[in-house]
User: Which sequence fits this backbone?
């Protein structure tokens, strides 16, 4: 499949998902023009705020391929990813991101993730999400154990 055909598949998934009362988002993960996994937004029907199309596609691809490293694969998303999905795309080490609708298009229909992008620019104390450091001296033990461990699976 060409990249346009792969994107049309992501778009078709997004349109079908609206008919199923899901959010208007779809994603496809592919390599060499072959689809390995797809995902749609399942936030409302699965009661999972992280079940965005891109995260769903990454989970499906990783499970199918039995790896957490999707290097060599590309993701086609019907919409520009939110910060969570963009982070997931980096963590999955996907080679390239294609998107169709922009985050501005999403904002125009009520899916405004620009505030999260704006939050990331702010200092911790200036963010809407209140946060504080707690028991760092106890939590650091896990990090020290990780550093000492010889047979760990690095990711
Ligand atoms: Zn997302």
Assistant:
């Amino acid at each position: 499949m060409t990249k346009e055909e792969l994107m049309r598949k992501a778009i078709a998934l997004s349109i079908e998902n609206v008919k199923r009362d899901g959010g208007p988002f779809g994603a496809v993960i592919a390599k060499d023009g072959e689809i390995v996994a797809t995902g749609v937004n399942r936030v409302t029907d699965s009661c999972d705020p992280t079940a965005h199309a891109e995260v769903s596609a990454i989970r499906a691809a990783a499970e199918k391929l039995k790896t957490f490293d999707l290097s060599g694969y590309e993701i086609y998303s019907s919409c520009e990813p939110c910060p969570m999905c963009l982070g997931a795309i980096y963590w999955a080490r996907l080679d390239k991101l294609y998107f169709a609708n922009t985050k501005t298009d999403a904002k125009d229909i009520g899916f405004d993730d620009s505030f999260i992008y704006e939050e990331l620019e702010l200092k911790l104390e200036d963010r809407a999400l209140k946060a504080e450091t707690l028991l760092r001296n106890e939590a650091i033990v896990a990090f020290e154990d990780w550093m000492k461990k010889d047979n760990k699976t690095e990711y």
User: Anything to note?
Assistant: The helical segments are 3-19, 43-46, 53-65, 83-91, 103-108, 114-121, 136-148.
